[in-house]
Amino acid sequence: MNRAHPYLPNSVPKIKERMMDEIGVKSIDDLYVNIPENLRFKGELQVPGPYTEQEVKKLVSNTLERNTPLKCPPFLGGGVWPHYVPSVVDEVVHRAEFLTSYTPYQPEISQGILQSIFEYQSLICELVEMAVANASMYDWSSALGEAALLANRLNHREIILVPSYISPSRLAVLKTYTIPAGMNIEKVNHDPKTGMMDLEDLKAKAGDRTAAVYVEMPSYLGFTEENVEAIGEIAHEKKSLYITGVDPISLGILKAPGSYGADVVVGEGQPLGNHMSYGGPLLGIFACNHDNAIIRQMPGRIIGVTETLADKRRAFIMTLQTREQHIRREKATSNICSNQALCSVASAVYLSLLGPNGLRDLAETCTSRANYLMNNINDLDGVKAPIFNAYHFKEFTVKYGKKKASEVNKMLLAHGYQGGKPLKTDFPELNESSLFCVTEMHTKEDIDGLITALKEATQ
Amino acid sequence: MTVRKFKQADWEEPLIFELSHEGRYGFHPPEVEDAIREKINIERLIPKRIARETPAGLPEVSEMEILRHYIHLSQMNYGVNSGLIYPLGSCTMKYNPIINEVLAGHPSLTETHPDQDSSTVQGILEFLYKLKQGYLSVTGMDDATLQPAAGAHGEWTGIMLIRAYHQEHEDFARRTEIIVPDSAHGTNPASAAMAGFKIIEIPSGSDGCVDLEALRAVAGPQTAGLMLTNPNTLGLFDHQIAEIAEIVHRAGGLMYYDGANLNAIMGKCRPGDMGFDVVHVNLHKTFSTPHGGGGPGSGPVGCKAILAKYLPVPDIVYKDGKYDLSYDKPHSIGKVHGYYGNVNVMLKAYTYMLTMGPKGLKEASELSVLNANYIARKLKDTKGLSLPFAPEKPRMHEAVLSAQKLNEDTTVRSLNVAKNLLDYGLHAPTVYFPLIVPEALMIEPTETEPVEALDDFIEVVKNTCEVAYTNPQEALKAPVNTVVGRLDEAKAAHPKTICLSWRKLCQLIEE
Asked: Where in the sequence of chain A do the CATH 3.40.640.10 domains occur?
């Protein structure tokens, strides 16, 4: 049967013919006359379908269900974390008026998304204690890349100092971003006992070519960096920018970067109401001080407050657009156009739902359960957790004495558990070890089950 | 006017902070089990010097208040699925199918961590692999990465591939220039600059296409590549594309295809057959995934075999009946995203592809072109408007009208035409772009708009032009049926009044 496709209202032959009549063409191909004959595609696209909605639902669901279900959420973190997404968040981001709108170029008809993103910016500012946040970057990694480029534009220096235990994927993206600008990344040594940055080494390496000093808090390997204040002072002595990268959930109980001197804060907003979705979409947090020089060099969309011309009513609008690609072209502060706006709306809803006390409760639950699992793993024979002697927030390292990390994970999987991420490839010196993560999604029952399975797997 | 009346909902919605009441909760995270609390003493656990002393200044609001707040805000917004027509040129605001959203909410996808063992994510890897195969067929390319999170991210990734290519061919030191036509999207020069290149802008010819003489004059041993949208931002297919590619290739440069306008040509012609070496496609345009108020999108990059080894890691591979991620790519430019890109968006695009099939994709392109021409032909002779650059040529999926005459005759600008559309519940086209058209109205209706919506759009534009000539003051008033009227843009950006957060707003109010 030759039915008009549900998404194509003008495919009804009579309508199509009438439209062609009215514009004076005999066939659709008359409209494609400018494509030279030899460039026209004569074959059929190698794409399955068409399927009806009912068929496609079954087909795609069946494909997705070829994933192996786990007994409980994976014990994985590192940049994407299993956190609960409250129902209200999903309800709001599925509203067609938000979901199917575009960048609010017409502010009069887009006050809803403008205000929501302004609220997101404001909530992030409260969380990290900074004055300004942008509407979003793609993820933590790209936010870090952009922060490094910002530092370079501000002080024309080319070295970024990073912790030796920086997340490997963030480091990889940072490299891709900074290489064209002629920048270099240097690692600062760590204290072998605590994993924290070696301040003497930092002092030795920081100099008048240091564009910025970057720390992650908590670190990629889960230990907290206790010298965040001192690191910032060293950076500032050298007139370098101080960039900190955060897991926002930790800020329920850990100091905000604004309180220890950060100039730019980046981080991953995924845990604030965004599903893991196999790593994307994520939400790059980007915040800074209200310093005119920095603000005018910031990448990305920014929503500001203004008022109506006629009756001075409060309203919201995209501002500082003269930094952006559609106006400045090659001189823009970044090429970013589409960003992660809807993820920032999700995070605004999430932070509003949790409030200051909910966020603290959540952080306490995460860290208590994580430390409970860590202590119990450490009690197992021939296993050490954590490797570093420091406070760990919700992630920690486990070192295996007898087994390979990959073997342990294989045995855990047989019990339905996804164990921590093996670390040897990225950090050979850590040998057979893994990075575990525990959140509020892991109940005591899940954790105890994992411990039993680990006991068997590590012997 | 036969077009229906419109009034946007307005709740005078306060900021979420202004709804705060101490002690209220909107959500309870689970509390720590007593058995764990007995063993783990939080007070002693967290070192004092890094412990947060004062809770974050977040609002305290109950669940229903929060829900209502954001639903109110949503009602003060305009989407393609909730509005009427959203003809934003170069943005392809087509219908965003609901089934895509339903499937993208499948917990097998949403609750999966990117570092899980590949044996547990076979379903996800399978659909990503198949999406890539379909993508290669539509674009005519040999290999692709799905990693870039947006169109501009894809452009930059693609230019980084070109950079890597010249670097390996020891040509990099002198190949410092990327050529971009003056009609290009702003992201093109910005992306090439981020990849470290100097931008050489060339003018368009009188027919709106690339001026071959201008191109020949700048192409040379310093050329790394050319970035081009075809059909271009005027909605014109550049028929000289084969010659353009030859000029660039002969100079030793590579051809980059900006896929922002791919919606015009699916199944009709392919970038790979036109001589392009690298492409990006915006899944949030051509493949129907929602724009989300500005994102998340997805901008996969495809390339010819000569560039495949430089693609970002990891690769999705299929071997011995199993899907896996491979990092074995020594020439790769590295990573451009923390993980594998906006996978959830990709599932929507995959669903769309299956729903349309090869014939449906082709028909979608054809109807997008029919719709754009229908509007262009019916509006081009309206008093005050014109269709600059080869008005006799058919447009592709979009058309750019100029309101220059209208502005000269009446002071009414294309911006005012846009605002008048808003008053009838129709979204405005893109205005003032491309830069080569004065008082531009860049109209892309897409294939999912019924002819009735096109007629409404045409009627309102015609009516606005008529009003402009008879009573210009009336035409300058709009919008009046939206939540707010025209805004003070200068105040938003002025150093003394700029306010980008609630904290700053409180400060300004105090002052």
From this structure: 87-350
Q: How confident is the model at residue A328 (pLDDT cuts 50, 70, 90)?
A: confident
Residue A1 confidence (pLDDT): 61
CB contact under 8 A, B77 and A98: yes
Summarize pLDDT for A108-136 with one digit per residue, the tens.
Answer: 999 999 999 999 999 999 999 999 999 99
End-to-end CA gap in chain A:
64
Distance CA A194, CA A213 (A): 19
pLDDT digits (tens, 9 = 90+) for B443-472: 999 999 999 999 999 999 999 999 999 999
Contact B500 A20 (CB under 8 A): no
Question: Within chain B, which residue ranges are assigned CATH 3.40.640.10?
Answer: 141-354
How many Å separate Cα A73 from the centre of its chain? 19
Residues of A in contact with B455 (CB under 8 A): none
CA angle A63, A69, A71 (to 5 degrees): 170
With CB atoms and an 8 Å threshold, state whether B502 touches A119. yes
- For residue A126, give the nearest of B57, B76, B339 by CB distance: B57
Are B290 and A117 an interchain contact pair (Cβ–Cβ within 8 Å)?
no
Give B449's contacts in chain A (Cβ within 8 Å).
9-10
Pick the CATH number of A87-350 from 3.40.50.280, 3.40.640.10, 3.40.50.1820, 2.40.50.100: 3.40.640.10
Chain B positions touching A129 (Cβ under 8 A) are 56
Chain-chain contact of A82 with B447 (C-beta, under 8 angstroms) = no
Contact predicate A66/B122, CB 8 Å: yes
pLDDT of the residue at A322: 85
Query: Domain A357-458, what architecture?
Result: Alpha-Beta Complex (3.90)
Q: For residue B365, how far is the Cα from the chain centroid? A: 18
On whether the B141-354 domain is CATH 3.40.640.10, my answer is yes
Average pLDDT, chain B: 97
- The residue in chain B having the minimum alpha-carbon distance to the alpha carbon of residue A332 is B190
For B318-371, write each residue's pLDDT tens digit.
Answer: 999 999 999 999 999 999 999 999 999 999 999 999 999 999 999 999 999 999
Q: Quick check: helix, strand or coil at residue B301? A: strand
Torsion of the alpha carbons at A274, A268, A121 and B72, rounded to the nearest 10: 0
**Which chain A positions have a beta carbon within 8 Å of B117's beta carbon?**
409-410, 413, 418
Amino acid identity for residue A43 in this structure: G
* Contact yes or no for A299/A286 (Cβ under 8 A): yes
All CATH 3.90.1150.10 domain ranges in chain A, comma separated:
357-458
CB contact under 8 A, B266 and A362: no
Determine the residue of chain B that is closest to A300 in CA distance. B294
Q: What is the pTM of this model?
A: 0.98
Amino acid at B24: R
A81 falls in which pLDDT band (50, 70, 90)?
very high
